[in-house]
Every structure is written in C-alpha cells, then in structure tokens.
Q: What sequence folds into this?
C-alpha cells in the first residue's frame, strides 16, 4: 500500500513537472525593481524658440525582469542599465517637446521568474492594467518571443533588448524593434577571427537547445561552410544539463580543435568549468553569453582563454568620430560617460547586457525626440526611420515586411578572458583587429 | 567502434555520479521506509548542503571534504528541527498532511534562500585533479565523492544493523506500536531517522557542489532523481537506493553515446514507468 502510494506520488510529480512546462505558473511573485540613482546628466533636447506653457507628462515604460530563475544574472544587468538611463534623463529634466510638454519616464516592472507563462501574464497586465505606453522586452529570446505576442496583439511598441533570435521579426510583427545583433550573425566575427588564426580548425558546435542558441547555430553553420571550415560535431543540449561529461567525451572523439556554442549563463559557466577540469586540449573555446558577464571569473582558471561574442565592450566602444566617418548622427553619451555613470550608480563595471538595457532607453528617447511626440504611431515611425550611432553601436531597423524590426546596423566584437600583468583575469577585446586591445590567446593555455 | 569507445569513456563518469545520486536517494527512502513520509524538503536540503560547501570553502578555505563533517552535523540538526516543527504532529495523519507539511518547509527554505542567496549560480572553485586511464578521464572530485558515498552507505548499514539506535529504527519501521510496547522511544527514533535522511541529503549536496555549479533551486532535479531511484532500488531499502543511483548514473553515461542528450530523461523516466508496471517493489526489492 505504502509502496504504491509512493509510486503514484512519484508519477504525479513527473506529470506535474511536464504540465508545469505547459501551463501557467501558480506562484505569482511580483517584485518591483528599485531604480538605481545616478549623477551623470544627459544633454537635453533644445526647447522651442517661444516657450509654450510647460506641461509635464509621465510616460510609463513596462517590462518584466528575471529576478529569479535561469535568466537572473543577465536580466538584472539589463534592468540596471535601463534604470541608469531613466534616472539620468529624469534628473536632467526629461525630454522637452516643441509644444511645451516635458516628458519624464516611470518604469513599471515585475519579476517574470524566467518563465514564459509569467511573461505573458505580466505583459498583459502591464498593457491593460498599468497602461504602459511603451514596452521593453524581458531578457532572453525565449521570454521575448512570449512577450512579443502580447505586445503585437495590443499594438504596443516594444524595444527588444537582450533578445537576438531572428524569428520573432519574421512573422509579420510590426511593433518590435531589435537592439542586439541578430542571432544568425552572432558568431560571424568569431569565425572571421578563426579564419585568420587557424584556417584548418576543426569545429565542434555544442549549444543550448533553446531559441536563441539555435538561431545562432542556424546562422553559424552555413557561414562556417561558406568559409571552408570543417564542422566535425554538432550537438544541442538541454538547458538544465548539469553533467557535460558525455558531450565533452564526444567533442574529444570528434577530433575538434575549436568549440563554438554554449547558451546562457548557468549552463555556459558549468560547461566552461567541466571543459577545464577534463583538460580537453581545445585550442579555442567560444561560448555564448556566460563569458560576457563579470561573474564569469568566479570560475577561476577555468575562465582563462574562454571567448565570447560581445554586443558591446568599453574597450571597443563606439565613438562620435566613428559615426562622423560613416556620415551618421551620434546620439547620447560616450561609452566612457555611460560607464562612469553606471559605476557611480552601482560600483560595477558595465557589461554588454547593461549597455543593452541603457541603449533600449536611449533609442526610445531618440525616437520620442525625433517624433516630437509620445504618440505611439509617431514614435514607431521615428524608430522605423532611425539610422544613428550611439556608444553601443549602430542602430537601424529593417522596415521590410519580411523582417520588420530586425537590427541591421549593430556589429559585435570578440572578447576573451586573459590575465593581466598582476595575474588578474580581465576581459580583452581581441577582434576586430582595428578595435582590439589585445591579441587573441590562441591556442588557449593547457590547463 | 567509435560508439563503443565513447561508451567506455562516458560510463565511468555516469557510475561515479550514480553513487552520489544513490546517496541522495538513500535519505529520501530511509525517511519513507521508517515513517511513511515523503520528504518534499529533500531538494532544498540538498541545496543547503551545496551552499555549506561553498561558504566554508570560499569564506574559510576549508577543504570541501573536511567541511562534510559540519555539513553532516548541520543536516542532522535541521532534520531534527524539521521533524519537530513540521512533521511530528502530522505523523499519524493521512499522507497528504505530511506531504503538505514538508512541502511548506520546502517553500520556506526556497523562499528564504532566494531572498538571501538569489537564484544566481554559485561555483566552488575547487579541483582534485584528474586521472587518465587510456582514453578515460576520471575526475578526482567524482572519485572521492563516490568513495564518500560508499563510506556513508557502509556507515548507515552498520548503524542500522549493528547499533542499538539503528536496531530501534528498524524496529519502529517494522511496527511502531510493537516497538513502543517494548519500550523504544519512538518519537526520538523517528526524529533520528528523519535527521539521518536529511543528513544524507545535505552530504550528497555538499559532494555535488564540488563538481557542478548550483543555485538554491538546484536541489529540485536531484530530489526528482531520488524519487525515481527510490522506486528503482526498492523503497525503504538504503542499499537498493545506492544501486538504483548507479543504474540512473549509468543510463546518463550510456544514452548520450548513442542518442542526443535530450533523450536521457525520456528513457530514464520511461524505464521508471516500466519498472512500476512490471516490478513495483523495485529491482532490489524492499526491506521493511
């Protein structure tokens, strides 16, 4: 009797787990994100010649953040970057429109627990109950895909930060505007670098089996083939994989000399650690997302030599001179000003996830200024016409029906963890060569 | 040939990991075997064991294997606390009551843990080297973890069969009313049994932390494996749990040699259902 109860219970637990993946979460926890104070001011929009009566208008920006769950690390950084932008702008007096309206910003946010179900519930709430005027995406492509459906259904403009996957922009959506370099182009810079370092490299692709990583691999494989690189092993792994031993054994058996792959922070940091422990002897390892975070050196020597494709690095930040050379407008603070503001607010150095969050606000600010209005349709038109440079890089959105909102102008760099003169792990930009502040460590030192 | 080679290289990893799975499952099955309580706080206790290793290693530099001693003591104490506060009063109530009681403890630990430690991954930057046997690489941390798991299994066996309190536990598990009539203090013995179960969970978590990064939510997957192992090995049979763990570990080593790793849970739980249907007492029977 008691054995059968245990057995039935275990079956129910298993069924529950499966159903929980299909149904809405039963544990609503909503935690507002505290704004981060900052001191650095932002340049204001010039006021109209004859100053009309001042009317202050507060624009509500809605988004969810993953305060808990698998996306916590990167999501918190994205939100921290956004908060720095919002506080800077509000403290500087907001945006002044020609009709005398002063636009200030307020954020409405909830913890999405890193689950799609919560994202859909909360974005619906943000739109219908909190009356958010504009939306920022949650962090990660999977969560953003869930949020994008709600945004699109309600016709709300959503700036998608922290979401690189291409597909959401190829399904007829017209309200999404992507800041990240699309997933299909994510590892192009890395492959270009490899071609110069080792044209004979044998590549293993081992990646998280999720939307973002799969879209990266979908773009990576044909590009590798077009470059004549040999792909000897391709393997997706489940997001919650703890033991990478069987996969690592397969990489060794395949004869690969280079590994490209990974997914997000939890699995990527675990993967890097196990690769190091097993002394696999790969010449080069590039993982998505995880090595871009400042937590990554907690792995110790396992972090040494691990590379990542980065959306932004302070050492390779984009400049007004670069914009001028390209004949484009440079908008917002310089990379150094942004980094100083962020450090003043948080005491930490910014990562690309932070920069992405800040840039999401900056792009919205620019669109409102260009539209000279907070009317969603006018702001959307301004976004569609946008072709600018910021410290974060180029911003230009695809406006064709086939891929509306897809990022066209932003480019990535390759960063690698190396040791400085004091033996401290530091993230260096190693590609493209014209912005690199270190040579690539190739092959990476044997453990 | 390549598949066979891959099998040979992956199987030892799975077996070594299986010992630790078995140790975790032993705690769950011991509690169930003695008092018919499904301890849903098992996963969070495993996670607390992980954090025990992390804090003692990162803050005091204590070797993770030395820190097993305070973690085991912590496991015993928290087990007594959970039993006294949440389980004792519902021990004779329907199963659902104890299930909800331990689920509440689960939620409390996870909630507190999330508030204090967040759900970010933590990493114990510790290595015990590795050993090459031909194409097979054995990690020192896994070898030691397997040895510790065997030691704890042997210790538990000796405790249950060679010591007076151990015999009391078996007596209470067999027939609590009769044991009480013989003068055995059943409340204290039940508390001890629960404490031993949580100690095994905490120690297994402490060992897992030496080879995988973890968060406060990490215990959940090992709790689920413990349920499966409990059924595979025979409920209430700690030694069976160790063998159940080995089977699960071997499957995790073998399957990726032939199929994509996403097939691992499909086959594991498929086998679990088959065992339930054809041999519900588990592969190694059950000792009451």
A:
């Amino acid at each position: 009797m008691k054995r059968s109860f245990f057995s039935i219970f275990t079956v129910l637990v298993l069924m529950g787990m499966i159903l929980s993946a299909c149904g809405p979460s039963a544990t609503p926890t909503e935690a507002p994100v505290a704004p981060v104070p900052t001191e650095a001011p932002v340049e204001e929009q010039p006021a109209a010649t004859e100053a009309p009566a001042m009317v202050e208008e507060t624009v509500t920006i809605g988004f969810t953040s993953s305060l808990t769950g698998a996306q916590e690390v990167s999501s918190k950084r994205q939100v921290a970057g956004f908060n720095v932008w919002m506080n800077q702008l509000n403290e500087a007096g907001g945006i002044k429109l020609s009709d005398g309206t002063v636009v200030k910003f307020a954020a409405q946010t909830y913890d999405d627990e890193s689950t799609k179900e919560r994202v859909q519930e909360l974005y619906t709430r943000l739109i219908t109950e909190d009356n958010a005027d504009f939306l920022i995406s949650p962090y990660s492509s999977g969560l953003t895909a869930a949020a994008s459906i709600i945004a699109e259904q309600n016709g709300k403009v959503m700036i998608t930060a922290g979401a690189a996957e291409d597909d959401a922009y190829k399904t007829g959506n017209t309200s999404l505007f992507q800041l990240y370099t699309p997933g299909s182009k994510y590892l192009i810079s890395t492959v270009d670098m490899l071609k110069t370092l080792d044209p004979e490299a044998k590549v293993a692709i081992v990646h998280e089996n999720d939307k973002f990583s799969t879209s990266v691999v979908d773009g990576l494989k044909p590009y590798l083939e077009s470059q004549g690189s040999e792909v000897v092993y391709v393997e997706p792994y489940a997001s919650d994989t703890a033991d990478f031993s069987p996969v690592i054994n397969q990489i060794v058996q395949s004869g690969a000399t280079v590994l490209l792959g990974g997914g997000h922070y939890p699995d990527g940091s675990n993967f890097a650690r196990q690769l190091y422990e097993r002394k696999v002897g790969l010449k080069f390892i590039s993982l998505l997302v995880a090595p871009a975070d400042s937590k990554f050196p907690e792995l110790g020597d396992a972090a040494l030599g691990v590379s990542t494709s980065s959306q932004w690095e302070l050492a390779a930040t984009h400049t007004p001179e670069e914009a001028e050379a390209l004949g484009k407008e440079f908008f917002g603070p310089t990379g150094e000003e942004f980094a100083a503001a962020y450090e003043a607010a948080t005491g930490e150095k910014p990562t690309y996830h932070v920069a992405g969050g800040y840039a999401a606000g900056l792009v919205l600010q620019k669109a409102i200024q260009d539209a000279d209005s907070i009317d969603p349709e006018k702001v959307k038109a301004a976004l569609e016409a946008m072709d600018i440079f910021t410290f974060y890089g180029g911003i230009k959105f695809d406006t064709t029906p086939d891929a509306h909102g897809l990022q066209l102008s932003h480019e990535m760099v390759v960063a690698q963890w190396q040791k400085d003169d004091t033996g401290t792990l530091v993230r260096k930009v190693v590609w493209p060569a014209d912005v690199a502040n270190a040579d690539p460590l190739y092959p990476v030192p044997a453990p | 040939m390549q598949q066979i080679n891959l099998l040979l290289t992956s199987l030892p990893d799975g077996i070594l990991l299986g010992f630790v799975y078995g140790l975790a499952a032993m705690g769950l099955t011991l509690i169930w075997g003695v008092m018919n309580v499904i301890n849903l706080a098992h996963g969070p206790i495993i996670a607390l064991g992980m954090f025990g290793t992390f804090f003692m290693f990162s803050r005091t530099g204590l070797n993770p294997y030395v820190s097993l001693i305070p973690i085991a003591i912590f496991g015993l104490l928290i087990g007594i606390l959970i039993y006294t506060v949440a389980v004792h009063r519902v021990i004779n109530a329907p199963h659902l009551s104890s299930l909800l009681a331990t689920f509440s403890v689960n939620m409390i630990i996870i909630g507190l843990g999330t508030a204090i430690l967040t759900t970010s991954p933590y990493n114990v930057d510790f290595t015990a080297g590795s050993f090459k046997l031909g194409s097979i690489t054995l990690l020192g941390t896994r070898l030691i973890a397997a040895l510790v798991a065997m030691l704890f299994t042997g210790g538990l066996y000796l405790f249950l069969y060679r010591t007076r309190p151990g015999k009391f536990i078996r007596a209470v598990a067999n027939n609590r009313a009769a044991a009480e009539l013989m003068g055995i203090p059943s409340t204290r013995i039940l508390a001890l049994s629960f404490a031993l179960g949580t100690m095994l969970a905490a120690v297994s978590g402490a060992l897992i932390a030496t080879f995988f990064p973890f968060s406060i939510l990490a215990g959940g997957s090992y709790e689920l494996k413990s349920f499966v192992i409990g059924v595979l090995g025979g409920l209430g049979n700690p030694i069976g749990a160790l063998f159940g763990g080995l089977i699960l570990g071997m499957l995790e080593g073998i399957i990726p040699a032939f199929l994509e790793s996403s097939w691992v849970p499909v086959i594991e739980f498929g086998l679990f259902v088959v065992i339930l249907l054809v041999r519900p007492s588990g592969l190694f029977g059950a000792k009451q």
About this structure: The radius of gyration of chain A is 22 Å. Chain A touches chain B through 47 residues (CB under 8 Å). Confidence is low (pLDDT under 50) at residues 19-48 of chain A. Residues 185-310+412-431 of chain A form a domain with the Rossmann fold fold (CATH 3.40.50.2300).
